[in-house]
Write a structure and sequence with these properties.
Length: 293
């Protein structure tokens, strides 16, 4: 008997959702930083066992949108409620449950199995954990609650075990050697954007989109030209830095990670372009790969 199914992972920003996603998949597919809104796309990761295939889907954090980019991000999370065999709702020991009541109400109405993951339990004592478990039992009575610490890989294997039990009988949807539905170009974009999130402060990372314009692969090297789009002229200056020092540092750090990811030498060129108000323009969002309604 073979089992296979789609397991979608949803939750609010900053609850460690992407850290958990990467742990479950066993590979770093979603970028991780301490900043909210790190994940912008729906990213698929595929896990194969001898008699099962789990197709995980990590989605952007649920938030109230302020512009069209965030509307597209919220749509990815809403779609995840409609096409899953099992839903994983990630919360933690810090967040308030009323962050996005409308979305939570949609989760409550689902008729598929729901695993509610309480992350970061290493930050609280047993009494507080019992209070949280009781609270979430009342909020989503149909959910099975699993406390974990993604940071310390505590109790995460029990999530996999339970998912396998819940999967329907089915043949694999993907070849056994398939890890994700995204291209190498997509992950190069994400690596560069991750470094921007890590090394630039305030509003800069949220105003940035990365676009790989050239990806030329030879036997021993990959030549990559990428454009960093910013919303305003002042942000361009911050990304480049005095005499180009900041951009050069960004390129060096990003290139090292890209080389590890591609397992090849990389020649990386970075350019910065002002694309005014790109987060609110349908045509440009579609160009960047967002599913704009």
């Amino acid at each position: 008997m073979h089992k296979a199914g789609f397991v979608n992972i949803v939750g609010n920003p900053n609850v460690g959702k992407s850290t958990l996603s990467n742990l479950l998949v066993g590979e770093k597919l979603s970028i991780i930083t301490s900043k909210a809104q790190t994940t912008r796309h729906r990213i698929m990761g595929i896990v194969n066992g001898d008699d099962y295939q789990i197709v995980f889907s990590d989605t952007p954090g649920v938030l109230k949108p302020n512009y069209k980019l965030q509307e597209a991000m919220l749509e990815y999370s809403k779609e995840a409620l409609t096409d899953a065999d099992v839903l994983i709702y990630v919360t933690d020991t810090i967040e308030k449950s009323d962050k996005h009541n409308d979305f939570l109400k949609s989760v409550e109405k689902l008729e598929i199995p729901i695993l509610l993951i309480i992350n970061k339990i290493d930050l609280i004592d047993q009494q507080k954990l019992e209070q949280l478990v009781s609270f979430w039992h009342d909020e989503i009575p149909s959910a099975e609650i699993i406390p974990v610490s993604a940071l310390h890989s505590f109790n995460t294997q029990s999530i996999i075990n339970r998912i396998v039990e819940l999967l329907p009988e089915a043949e694999p949807y993907y070849d056994k050697d398939t890890l994700t539905d995204k291209s190498e170009r997509f992950f190069v974009n994400e690596i560069i954007r991750e470094k921007i999130l890590l090394y630039y402060k305030k509003e800069i990372p949220y105003s940035v989109e990365v676009e790989v314009e050239e990806f030329k692969e030879s036997a021993d090297r990959v030549d990559i030209r990428a454009v960093i789009h910013v919303a305003r002229e002042s942000q361009k200056g911050i990304i480049i830095g005095h005499q180009g020092v900041a951009l050069k540092k960004l390129g060096t750090i990003a290139r090292r990670d890209i080389e590890r990811f591609l397992d090849k030498k990389v020649f990386l060129q970075l350019f910065v372009k002002v694309t005014k108000d790109w987060r609110d323009k349908d045509r440009i969002l579609k160009q960047f790969g967002y599913d704009v309604k």
